[in-house]
């Protein structure tokens, strides 16, 4: 595997302050958070969220930030209204393995396909950039192919197989955390070799002193985390502005 399966670090994090500006709408009956730009650039960003789903303040705020850069940004519910329950997990009453079994490619891929189809054929966007955090990174990688996503950025990925990464055909940028039990140094090096062999545009930025989840759920009161979170967002925007 190019990254290990999700673990406890995938559900740790800090709720960020702010008021989301978007709205919950439907794409093919799928609840989706829409963040619309004041000055659209004609392209869209599809955020594949983490185990908390789209009704989560942090991912909605970051969708708003992408929209402020000119991108129509959507965060669909990839989990059929069944996000991880943090209280049950921390209380030892949540079976993460069983939950993952309910949310595998057989259930997630059809939702992603429907959203991509809607963006391309109903909303007529000129290109689609994929963003994936942790759990969602796997599904960004699975859809980074012809006639699906045009470019992608993933942060602290989990559950990505080497076969999935080897199958991409479009540019990929990765934000990695130094302290990560899932996207380890060894997995990062493995991913780098796979990407180099593909001869596609790629980028892997390593952020020192931060842990898995920093790009979406980091404690922004810590200077090092705030710096890494801000730079990782800029990494994504710069990558998209160049490659879309």
From TrEMBL:
Keywords associated with the record: Hydrolase
Database matches in InterPro entries: AB_hydrolase_fold (IPR029058), Dienelactn_hydro (IPR002925)
Transmembrane segments: none
SUPFAM superfamilies assigned to the protein according to its UniProt record, in alphabetical order: alpha/beta-Hydrolases
GO molecular function, one term: hydrolase activity
Domain named Dienelactone hydrolase: residues: 30-241
Protein name per Swiss-Prot or TrEMBL: Hydrolase
């Amino acid at each position: 595997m190019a990254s290990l399966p999700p673990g406890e670090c995938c559900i740790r994090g800090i709720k960020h302050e702010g008021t989301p500006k978007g709205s919950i709408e439907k794409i093919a009956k799928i609840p989706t958070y829409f963040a619309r730009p004041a000055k659209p650039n004609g392209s869209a960003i599809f955020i594949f969220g983490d185990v908390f789903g789209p009704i989560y303040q942090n991912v909605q705020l970051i969708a708003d930030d992408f929209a402020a850069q000119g991108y129509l940004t959507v965060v669909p519910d990839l989990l059929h209204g069944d996000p991880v329950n943090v209280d049950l997990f921390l209380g030892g009453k949540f079976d993460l393995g069983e939950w993952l079994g309910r949310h595998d490619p057989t259930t997630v891929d059809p939702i992603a396909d429907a959203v991509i189809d809607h963006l391309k054929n109903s909303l007529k966007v000129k290109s689609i950039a994929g963003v994936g955090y942790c759990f969602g990174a796997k599904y960004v990688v699975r859809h980074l192919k012809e006639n699906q996503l045009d470019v992608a950025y993933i942060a602290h990925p989990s559950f990505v197989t080497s076969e999935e990464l080897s199958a991409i055909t479009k540019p990929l940028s990765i934000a990695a955390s130094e302290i990560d039990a899932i996207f380890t140094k060894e997995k990062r090096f493995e991913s780098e070799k796979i990407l180099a062999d593909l001869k596609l545009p790629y980028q892997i930025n390593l952020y020192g002193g931060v842990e898995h989840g920093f790009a979406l759920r980091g404690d922004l009161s810590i200077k090092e985390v705030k710096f890494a979170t801000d730079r990782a967002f800029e990494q994504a925007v710069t990558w998209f502005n160049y490659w879309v």
